Amino acid sequence: AQGKPIKCTAMVARGVNDMKEEEITVDVPKRGEVRVKVMANALCHTDIYTLEGSDPEGLFPCILGHEAGCIVESVGEGVTSVKPGDHVIPCYTPQCGETDCVFCMSEKTNLCPKIRGTQGAGVMPDGTSRFKDKDGETIYHFMGCSTMSEYTVLADISVAKISKDIALEKACLFGCGISTGLGAVWNTCKVEQGSSVAVFGLGAVGLAVIQGAKMAGATKIIAVDLNPSKFDMAKELGATHCVNPQDIDKPIQQHIAGDLTDWGVDYSFDCTGNTEVMRSALECAHRGWGESCVIGVAAAGHEISTRPFQLVTGRVWKGTAFGGFKSRRDVPRLVQRHLDGDLPIDHFITHRFDSVGETTKAVDALHSGCCLRAVVRY
Ligand code: NAD
Ligand code: AHE
Ligand code: ZN
Ligand code: ZN
């Protein structure tokens, strides 16, 4: 039997830094779509970046949010991979898995482009939105997820079914930042035992890079942040050196490549989104083979630069989206590793809130400088 539209509460971003709790209507899922009840949503810096107007693809009004734990409420025609009651993680990088998708068929990438065009335009794959405000006006989707709502609709290729043994208020973390940091190390750079690593920016993403590097057997892990309150956690997770660039009298890349190592680090990671930091990260990489991975998302109009000589002399500049994980296949595996005790994540949750409306408090927490992940339970 076909379901009905659901009235519920959501945070609607009406414009730059203008987000409020509103009553909205969430339409029934169409063919190939899934409607889910969002149980918990964690804020990622990318939500704030879009709310602040820095995303060249940002559209208003929209419902932000993309790091969530959900329960399937109903499914549209043709959906067989999940059923009502299943626990799922929304995945902004989908995995269509079709044999004619050269991206899904390749082990070199996770970037399935199947719905990327409509996702970037804030609509479902058929070109329309499932959200309306109380005046019947359309509200855009965001990153194919829009999880700052009690209910949302996703393409079925954008949900990863996970074990019911993990609490959704924890599992939500696997929807973006933590997976991204771990995957940048394990998949995108394939950091080896005995490697040296530098990590710029010690938010949840950068700290997950440190955790992943330690698990991969890196023996020198240099953590860099302007905010020294991040250093204790960095050390607990495996950082061997912590540096505040404001405390040294030379460019940070020279300090890393000259004082802390002989020729630079084997691998470096930008987890700030600042294009000057991306340059430092590239330039502190080892002559001849050092690889630098861009994870941070830069604001509209910002571009990276370096002397081409840096690349001529063997450094490699690369980047990652969702840590290279093929979402529907790999997110359940990450959850299982956590359940098996191999992948602790509780330390990333520094703040908890209890209703969609409290998302504004979570945004304030994220700005406070002492927040890794703020999880809002609905
Ligand atoms: P966050 O804001 O919690 O952490 C950023 C950290 O960088 C903070 O600790 C801050 O003090 C530090 N920082 C800022 N400027 C710095 C500078 N000049 N030098 C050194 N440190 C500096 O953010 P997060 O949630 O951890 O996300 C990190 C970045 O990764 C963001 O840009 C986010 O948009 C991006 N991101 C990308 C992906 C992807 O798939 N590529 C996934 C998730 C997040
Ligand atoms: N829309 C922006 C880019 C934003 C961006 O790069 N997003 C990352 C994920 S950030 C998660 O917190 C990403 O994976 N991008 C790949 C993609 O397909 O969006 C812009 O510059 O237009
Ligand atoms: Zn994110
Ligand atoms: Zn695909």
Could you walk me through the main structural features you see in this protein, from its secondary elements to its overall organization?
This is S-(Hydroxymethyl)glutathione dehydrogenase / alcohol dehydrogenase. Residues 31-122 form the Alcohol dehydrogenase-like N-terminal domain. GO terms for molecular function: S-(hydroxymethyl)glutathione dehydrogenase [NAD(P)+] activity; zinc ion binding. Residues 204-335 form the Alcohol dehydrogenase-like C-terminal domain. Its cofactor is Zn(2+). The protein has 378 residues and is α/β, with parallel strands linked by helices. It has two domains: 6-175 and 345-377, Medium-chain alcohol dehydrogenases, catalytic domain (Quinone Oxidoreductase, Chain A, domain 1), CATH 3.90.180; 180-321, 3-Layer(aba) Sandwich (Rossmann fold), CATH 3.40.50.720. 25% of the residues lie in helices and 23% in strands. The protein is built from twelve helices and 17 strands. It has helices spanning 45-51, 102-105, 116-120, 168-171, 177-188, 204-215, 231-237, 252-260, 275-283, 309-312, 327-339, 359-367; strands at 6-15, 18-26, 33-42, 68-75, 87-90, 131-132, 138-139, 151-155, 159-161, 196-200, 220-224, 241-243, 267-270, 291-294, 316-319, 349-353, 373-377. The strands form three sheets. Strands 3, 4, 5, 8, 9, 16 and 17 form a seven-stranded mixed sheet that branches. Strands 12-11-10-13-14-15 form a six-stranded parallel sheet, with helices on both faces. It has a four-stranded antiparallel sheet with strand order 1-2-6-7, with no helix packed on it. Helix 10 links the parallel strand 14 (291-294) and strand 15 (316-319). Helix 5 packs parallel to helix 6 and helix 8 (252-260) packs parallel to helix 9. The longest helix is centred in the C-terminal third of the chain and has 13 residues, at 327-339. It is globular, with a radius of gyration of 20 Å. The two termini are 27 Å apart. One zinc ion binds next to helix 2.
